[in-house]
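Ticket #4471: structure output looks truncated?

Reporter: J.K.
Steps to reproduce: submitted the chain below (183 residues) through the standard prediction queue, then opened the result file.
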Amino acid sequence: MEVLVSLSIFAIVSVAVITMFSTSLRIEQRGSAYRGLQQNGLYIMELLGKEIRNGRIDYISYGGTVSNPVDALHLIYRGSTDLDEEISLDTSTTPDSIILRRENPSLPGSYNEATLTNTEVNVDSLTFYITPPTECTDDVCDDPGKETVTIIMHLSSNAASRFGSANATVNLQTTFTTRAYEF
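Returned output as attached by the reporter:
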C-alpha cells in the first residue's frame, strides 16, 4: 500500500514537472520567434529608410498624383544616374516578401530584384502613405524636395508555427523624409 501511494505521488509530481518544462519550452520558443521577427522588421525598416532618404518620389509612376494609401513605393534612386526603383509586396512567393526592384544602370529598362525578407518572416501587409500627394515645387510647397513616406507593415513569423505554438505577429510603422541636396 505504501508503495502504491509513493508511486502515485511520484507520478503526479513527474507529470507536473514535465508539464512545466514543456510550457517553459513553448514560451521560450515563442519569445525567440518574437525576437527574430522584431529584428527582421527593424532591419527591413532601416533598409527602406535608406532607400527613401537617398531617393525621391517618382510621381510620374503614380500618374502625377498619389492616391493614398499605395501598396508600392516608386522612387527615383539618386546614384550616379537617376534610376527607377520600386519597393512592393510580392504575394506570388511563399512566404509573402518585400521586393526591391532597381533599374540596371548598364541595361536601361531592365531591373535587378532583391528580396528584403527571409523565409522565417511573412509580410502580411505593406502600405505606404506619401505626402504631399503631388510633386513639390517652389510655387506649391514651402519646402520642395522634402517628401515624407509613412510605412505601415504587419509581419508574422513562420518560425512560430514550426514550433507548434501560435504565430508571433508584429505591427510596425514609421515615417521617413527624402533628402534634397542642392549644389
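Triage note (M.O.): checked the attachment and the full C-alpha cell line is present. The mean pLDDT is 82.
Status: closed, working as intended.
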